[in-house]
């Protein structure tokens, strides 16, 4: 099984990655994460890179999302602007949320 975990360098995503890594040793995990203020590569430290691949990219970027989704058996979506303060202070860049954009891309795939 190959899974794609968006936002997998964030709090919940990285804990999910570690859970799957431990519980499903035969699964391949690809993390797609933009590494914003909330994402941290160190959250994936210690995981075998032959099983866990980090793709640094934006879920709003089709050129990144399309091949990643095509290569996966399942997608688990955690990428988000989870800090509400940022949405309030900079609404223009978040008018199209990563989640809604990603959902429309995967729905049409
Ligand atoms: N933390 C909680 O207690 C909690 C509880 C319930 C639900 N949730 C939900 O779970 C999801 C993840 O929460 P979290 O606490 O792990 O958030 P987080 O902020 O720690 O992680 C979000 C991750 O998404 C990445 N990201 C943001 N925009 C991106 C983009 N455009 N493309 C690719 N990656 C992008 C960030 O770099 C980060 O690694 C959110 O939808 C949140 O609302 C969280």
Shape: globular
CATH topology: Rossmann fold
Strand runs, count: 4
CATH superfamily: NAD(P)-binding Rossmann-like Domain
- Please tally the helical runs, counting DSSP H or I stretches of 4 or more residues: 4
Strand order of the largest sheet: 3-2-1-4
- Say what oligomer this is: single chain
Name of the CATH class: Alpha Beta
Strand content: 15-25%
Rg computed from alpha carbons, rounded to a whole number of angstroms? 14 Å
Ends apart, CA distance between termini: 19 Å
What portion of residues is helical?
Answer: 25-40%
Q: Round the mean pLDDT to the nearest integer and report it.
A: 88
Ligand inventory? nicotinamide-adenine-dinucleotide
Structural class: alpha/beta
């Amino acid at each position: 099984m190959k899974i794609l975990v968006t936002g997998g360098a964030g709090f919940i995503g990285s804990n999910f990655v570690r859970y799957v890594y431990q519980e499903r040793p035969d699964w391949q995990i690809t993390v797609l994460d933009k590494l914003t203020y909330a994402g941290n590569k160190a959250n994936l430290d210690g995981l075998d890179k032959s099983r866990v691949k980090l793709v640094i990219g934006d879920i709003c970027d089709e050129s990144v999302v399309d091949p990643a989704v095509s290569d996966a058996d399942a997608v688990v979506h955690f990428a988000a602007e989870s800090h509400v303060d940022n949405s309030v202070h900079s609404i223009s860049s978040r008018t199209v949320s990563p989640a809604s954009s990603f959902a429309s891309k995967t729905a049409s795939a």
